[in-house]
Amino acid sequence: MDCVQRWKPVGGMVVVEFSLAIVNVLFKKALNAGMDHVIIVLYRQSIATVFLIPLVYFWERGSWNKLTARLIGQMFLCALLGLTLSQYLFLVGLDYTSATFTCAFINLVPVVTFVLALALRMEKVNLKRKSGKGKVIGTLTCVVGATTLSFYKGMRLIKAGHDVLKQQQGRAKGLGTGSAFLFAGSIAWSSWFLIQSKIGHNFPYTYSSTSIMSLFSAVQSALLFLITDRNMSKWIVKGYLHILSVVYAGIVGSGLCYVVMSWCVKKKGPVFTSAFSPLIQIFAGIFDVLVLHEDVYLGSILGSIVVIVGMYILLWGKSKDEEICEALPKRIMDADSGQREVTNH
Questions:
Q1: CA-CA distance, 284 to 308, in Å (whole number)?
Q2: What residues have CB less than 8 Å from 1, skipping those under 6 apart?
Q3: Where are the alpha helices (DSSP H) in 98-129?
Q4: H or E stretch at 296
Q5: Nearest-CA neighbor of 228 among 24, 84, 31, 96?
Q6: What is the model's pTM?
Q7: How many CA atoms lie within 13 A of 82 on its CB side?
Q8: Which of 298, 261, 292 is nearest to 277 (CA)?
Q9: How far apart are CA 193 and CA 113, in angstroms?
Q10: In this predicted structure, what is the pLDDT of residue 335?
C-alpha cells in the first residue's frame, strides 16, 4: 500500500505529460488552420471552469467558506501567470516553431522553477556539498542546451512532407523570435508552480482552486483579446478540429491535468512536479513526426538532450538534499537517545 501511495504522484504526472503533449499537437494543427491564440486560451479556460464546477459542488462544496482575500489575490496572480500568460506565450512560440521545439523549452521549467525558488529563498545551495554543486552544474547545463536550441539549427534529419514544407516556408518565421516567447512562457509557468505551492499549503482543495483560477483566466483572456484584437468574428469557433482542440484542452489539459499538478505540488513540491516536463517532448516528438510531419533538425535534438541531461543533474542534487533533510532528524534523535543513556548511567 505504501508503494502504491509513493508511486501515485509519478504515475499521475506521466499521464499529465502525455495529455499535455496531445494538447500541443492539437493546438499546432489549430494554429496552422488559422485559430487565434487568445481565443484558444479563452475557450480552454471557460470549458475547464464549466467542467470543474460539478466536481467542486459534489466533493468540495464547503471549501469556498475558507477563502480569504489574500488567497483570492494569489489565485488571480497564479491564473494570470500560469494560465493566461504562459499559455498565450507558449501558443505564440508554438506558432513560430514546432511542437517538439516548444516542448524542448518546456524542459527549462524545472530549472527556471529552481532558480526562482533560490531567489525567493524557497531553495538553498551549499557549494561544499555534492548536491549543491549538482544543482549549479545542472542549471548551467540547461542554459547551454537552451542556447543551442535558440541559435543552432544544424542539418535536417527528418524532412517534412511537401504540404507541410510549403506551409513552413509560407510562414517564414524564425526560431529566435519563437524562442523568446517560449522562454518568457517558461518563466510564467515556473512562477505558477511556486505560487501554487503556497496556495496548496493554505487552501488544500485542488478542484476549487483550479476552477477559480480557470475562471479568472477566462476573464483575463477575454480582456486581453478585447485590448489586442476587436474582430468579434474570431470568437466563433468553426470546424471539427477547432472544437475538438478547445474541448479536449479545457476538460483534460486545464481541468484534470491542473488538478493533478496542484495535488502533486502539494504532496511533493514544485520542483518535483515540474521535473516531469521532459516527457512532454518525448511524446510530442513522436506525434510531431507521425501526425504533424514537421522537419526535425540536429540542433533541436542536441539542444534537447543537453537540456534533459542538465535537468536531471539538477534533480539529482535536489534528491540528495532531500535525503540529507530526511536523515538529519534521525541523527538528532539517535544523538539525543545516546546522550540520555550516558546520563542515566
A1: 15
A2: none
A3: 99-106, 109-119
A4: strand 296-297
A5: 84
A6: 0.71
A7: 28
A8: 261
A9: 7
A10: 45
CB 7 within 8 A of CB 244: no
3-class DSSP state of 89: helix
Biggest CA-to-CA distance, the chain = 86
Q: What angle do CA 201, 207, 211 make, to 5 degrees?
A: 105
H helix or E strand, kind and range, residue 158: strand 156-158
List the beta bridge partners of residue 223.
none
Cα 264 to its chain centre, rounded Å, is 12
First and final CA of the chain: distance in angstroms? 42
CA dist 134 and 143 (Å) reads 14
Distance of CA 168 to the CA centre of its chain: 26
With CA atoms as reference, report the closest residue to 136 among 340, 334, 317, 332: 317
The answer to whether the beta carbons of residues 314 and 134 sit under 8 Å apart is yes
* Region of residue 252 (left: phi > 0; alpha: psi -120 to 50; beta: else): alpha
Distance from C-alpha of 26 to C-alpha of 28, rounded to nearest angstrom: 5
Residue carrying C-alpha cell 542546451: 145
Helix (H) or strand (E) segment spanning residue 157: strand 156-158
- Comparing CA positions, the residue from 263, 269, 275 lying closest to residue 325 is 269
SS3 state at 97: coil
Return averaged pLDDT per consecutive 10 residues of the chain, 345 residues in all: 68 85 82 82 90 87 85 92 88 78 73 80 74 79 74 70 48 68 88 84 85 92 84 77 87 84 78 71 70 69 79 74 56 48 51
DSSP H helical segments within the chain, as ranges?
2-32, 37-59, 69-78, 86-96, 99-106, 109-119, 130-151, 162-171, 175-202, 206-228, 240-248, 257-268, 270-274, 278-287, 298-344
CA angle 16, 190, 281 (to 5 degrees): 45
Query: What pLDDT is stored for residue 80 in this prediction?
Result: 93
DSSP 8-state class, residue 68: -
CA-CA distance, 255 to 179, in Å (whole number)?
27
